[in-house]
Amino acid sequence: MVVLNKIYTKTGDGGETALGNGSRVAKHSKRVTAYGTVDETNATVGLARLHASDDMDAQLAMIQNDLFDLGADLCRPDMEKDANAEYPPLRMTDTQVTRLEHEIDAMNDVLSPLRSFILPGGSALAAHLHLCRTVSRRAERLSVELATVETVNASAVKYLNRLSDWFFNASRIANNDGKGDVLWVPGANR
């Protein structure tokens, strides 16, 4: 259980922060940048939820919780030492990835195939979901970049890859099952 009695600690005033294992790193490190962008993604999901209802809101709430799990996963390096940890770190699982895949498939079942790229927009919810998509893509790129120099849980990267697809399909659902999608017209303004 987390207890936060005081929000500021002054321990980061020198440009460093603590990771989940207690080690200190620069706030601009690849790991901090990756999980910080996961946090940004979570904030964009919070905005989208202001426009969502019922099933979509429930699914977005689950994603927000998953994103906290993902941040906890990314902030804890040294996966090979997990077995000896006093408190086993929280890691993303393929079960979370599979849930997203099932939800993507269910949304895809009601959507017509695309015959054009679509522009971010349409309804307010769709526009916010497109923002979620682009920020989650950035989180994925940064996590993949981190994985080139440090160990990263493969399920975490898979989750981020599926998540942007989830947001894309969800944006189409939010646009009246794709009927309100804003289609790209190549060269329209030449």
UniProtKB/TrEMBL annotation:
Protein name: Corrinoid adenosyltransferase
Localization terms from the record: Cytoplasm
Family, as annotated: Belongs to the Cob(I)alamin adenosyltransferase family.
Molecular function GO terms recorded: ATP binding; corrinoid adenosyltransferase activity
Pathway assigned to this chain's UniProt record: Cofactor biosynthesis; adenosylcobalamin biosynthesis; adenosylcobalamin from cob(II)yrinate a,c-diamide: step 2/7
The keyword Electron transport belongs to this UniProt entry's keyword annotation: no
Domain of life: Bacteria
EC numbers for this chain: 2.5.1.17
Biological processes annotated in GO: cobalamin biosynthetic process
Keywords in alphabetical order: ATP-binding, Cobalamin biosynthesis, Cytoplasm, Nucleotide-binding, Transferase
Listed SUPFAM superfamilies: Cobalamin adenosyltransferase-like
Domain Cobalamin adenosyltransferase-like: 7-173
Catalytic activity: 2 cob(II)alamin + reduced [electron-transfer flavoprotein] + 2 ATP = 2 adenosylcob(III)alamin + 2 triphosphate + oxidized [electron-transfer flavoprotein] + 3 H(+); 2 cob(II)yrinate a,c diamide + reduced [electron-transfer flavoprotein] + 2 ATP = 2 adenosylcob(III)yrinate a,c-diamide + 2 triphosphate + oxidized [electron-transfer flavoprotein] + 3 H(+)
Statement: the UniProt record of this protein carries the keyword Cytoplasm: yes
Cellular component GO terms, alphabetical: cytoplasm
InterPro entries the record matches: CblAdoTrfase-like (IPR016030), CblAdoTrfase-like_sf (IPR036451), PduO-typ (IPR029499)
